[in-house]
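The passage that follows is intended for readers who have already worked through the single-chain material. We present the inputs for a multi-component assembly, then the predicted structure in tokenized form, and finally a short commentary. You are encouraged to pause after the input and sketch how you expect the pieces to fit together before reading on.
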Amino acid sequence: MALKGLDIFKLSPKKNCKECGSPTCMAFCMKVAQGAISIDKCPYFSDDAKAMLNEQTAPPMKTIAVGSHKLGGETVLYRHEKTLVNKNLYAVAVGTTLSAEEVDAKLADLQKVDYERIGERMYVEFVFVANTQSDPAVYAELVKKAAATGRDLILECWDVECAKAALEVAGKNVILDGATPDNWEAMNDIATAAGVVLGVSATSLSDLYDTVKKLEGKGNKNLVLDVTGKTAKETLANAVLVRRTAIKDGDRSFGYPSIVNVARLAKGDDHLQTAYATLFTEKYGSILVMEHMTYAQALPLYGLRQNIFTDPQKPMKVESKIYPLNGADENSPCALTVDFALTYFLVSGELERSNQPVNLIITDASGMSVLTAWAAGKFSSSTVKKTFETLDIENKIKNRTLIIPGKVAVMKGEIQEKLPGWNGDVGPLEAGRLPKYMNDME
Amino acid sequence: MAFTPKTAPFSGKINAVTLGTGDKAIVIGGQNVMPFYTFDAPIENAPKIGVEISDLAANWDAPALNEFYAGCTTMVDYAKKAETMPGADFLCLHFESADPNGENRSVAECVADAKAVADAVTMPIVIMGCKNIEKDGELFSKIAEALQGKNILVLSARNEDYKTVGASVALAYGQKVGAETADDINLAKQLNIMLKGLSINPENIVMNIGTAAVGYGFEYVASTLDRVRLAALAQSDADLQMPIMSPVSPDAWSVKESTATEEDEPAWGNREERAIDMEVSTAAANLTGGADAVIMRHPAAIATIKKFITELV
Amino acid sequence: MEVKELSFEELLATKVPEIKVVDMGVKYKGHNPESPTFVTIGERIHCIAPSIRKAMDERDPEPILKRAAEQIAAGATYLDVNIGPAEKDGPERMMWAVKLLQENFNNVPLALDTANKKAIEAGIKVYNRTNGKPIVNSADAGSRISYIDLAAANDAICIALCSADGIAKDNEERMKHCHNMLERGMSLGMDATDLWFDPLFLVVKGMQDKQMEVLEAIKLFASEGLKSTGGLSNNSNGAPKTVRPIMDSALVAMAMMQGLTSAIVNPNDLRLMETIKSCDIFKNHVLYSDSYLDL
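Having made your guess, compare it with the prediction:
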């Protein structure tokens, strides 16, 4: 439990001089904590102590912006406590060890995954450009190629001259992932001059912490922390301890977004990278670096990300419209359900399994499930009628069969009244029975 | 100013539950930290992987998976082969065909299969039913009776049938019982209380708190796992300290990402690879949330998750 | 009964007679000191009750164990052990009572309640901490402030009554006492959360106009992250027997809303205990299940 007044008391002069008007320092500090009195009333509080107190009222984790992307800014460790704010982003790695052909192939490949899922664009947001040599021209050439994809860049480069050259061609939407306990001062100068986010890494959390403190001392708080360790186990420990220290213990020097290089933890093993990326989606990776991003990997990973970063207060909704399935046309029957994303996925999935052409009509029910929406009056014969009008279903579809969810069989009569000419057909209670139902309908 | 991380185990602890007998017996649970938080305290029992063997496995449509089971016709064949799968810790016999709305195989036939498998294998056995409450009730009771002494786990007792399933499986035949709920933490707790109320020892209870494939409402599973674990560990809630088993494969293999053909979705590439990644990600997500055991299907996915667990514990 | 007075040193060398463990059919289920749930301190082992006074004098376990068993069965977290002023044989009495209760009831945690400081110290020497630190009952900001020193020296929790000589006249005075005691405890190395501040619950019949002020004081403690407790049932003193549980339940719900973390109560008041359990549900301290009242 946060003992705020007591935290202030620990920093207080403990003179009990009464000059502030309070009988004791303890009483004064309690009043400060409640906001009843300004700390400036005490002439003996040191500037350091005041600065520390100011720091403690700042949010526990910074929000770092790279281009249009936002990272970090989290206030809780678990999504049920409130909500997670900024979803993790993905990068695909290229590096100076690859041949020009390999680089070209990878850069082309990473752009292939680009699709929409429940209103969200799913693609690889960053190219991670690793440098392991010392010729600035060679690295700049590679960075230029990566920048040409239009994706934001992470420049992993510990060589100061190479970093300088890279930043000249990299544009603004860049993270310079290059500061270490050895070179932090020079890297800080370059990153600050270029106005880009600086990535910090170290071989231990203690060194990482010290380096962040030094950078903060120079006034740079535009940082991300590369927490990748030698093993997955070490990396998980780093990611969790950094986040927990910031959120739970309120130590803002670890209150920065993280980079986890999954590609390095499971080189050459795409399946294992999928597993690790899953782990770090749930446990505190802000940018996950992959060796590739195939559709096979993207489909589960982006789906999971969309789930985990959904605001628990806001239901996931799909668009109200006609979804023709299995090659349905105007002569195919219609099936009706609500716009709750989970319901949509379940019902559309099962209808697809039936292999029968059907027009799935999604009606606006404020993202509630069938029974909840029905009970709340958001899924009724009137709302269905409105959907039919808005989507102009009368004219778009000739078939007059409408399958109604089994759970709201009671609506059948009313729907037929409101939609003359349509034949209501009561579907099964569970989506899982839809394939059998559709095939029996013939 | 040197940084020293604050690390500590919780005072609450997950029950350690033993499944199976002999050399191949496994223990799930027993830890007092969040999943894979080895920096807080060592994790004694690494999470375990079960191989799903369905009595409808002949319908499985995945070349490498079918290749692995080439030549297998009976459930015993499948089970013996599954035991050789690298990474496998236990077997899960899934009697899908018992469904009265499906093939409606008789209880006697299913029990005969279960018995034959139990006689032929040494790994611990977990039983999954067909989701039909009435049929499962009879099936579970008969299998628990036929496999007495094997220390099997039956998934699952539900709110509707916990009395009959709990009484027969755990009390009459001394097996382990699963308590199944669907993303409802209050009911999960209540069901455990009810099972304990039947005088079932908490060390004989495992939970299945609900499943989903990633992308399909997994946020409910993730938050239920987080909340169950925090209640068990941080609040020492003894009614939620049962280890968790998550059946991953039935969900992971039935979503569109795993079933759509390459003709339907040309951009998506090889279908089996998609199913493997869907299974890997769903299993990893469950383990990250707190599952102490996962049930999976594909050898490549199982090998991956085995590596994942080994690297992290 | 002949009582011999011992020096403290002598007493430590003395062995308390073997405790006979009797099966009362009740097991203390354990307590996690980290738990945020409301802590009830059962008040029924008190020398003001003639049967208990007699039992203490005669070292007769039966009446004490009976009351302990009833309170534990009803869900008490801690048991208060009031041995009276015990000027003569306090240490020996307290050691006997602590061992008697803890050995019979799975190391049930105890609040040691007497004006004899040596007795409290002696009780702590034989106290088992499995289910929580011992509670020193109690210090105040006046003549009993040194009980804080006693608690600090023995790593105990201390109930800190926010009054000095007589009832505090307002919350400014209550908080002044609170801060004085807090400062003293912390300067002696205590955790702030080991001081449980008691606003002093006041009787409605006579001090009805002060009730909201007491509740306000609890909120002030809570806003500073401090723990609190008190003799809650004092509010209904003199009210009809049938009415008291209703008043106590209403007050505990209001006080828990303000942030009260513990109270010294009669755990055999079913209505009160059910109210506390329900409030712990609303405060999200315990995960809801249909059976929550039975747990």
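Commentary: The radius of gyration of chain C is 19 Å. The CA atoms of residues 173 and 191 of chain C lie 23 Å apart. How closely did your sketch match?
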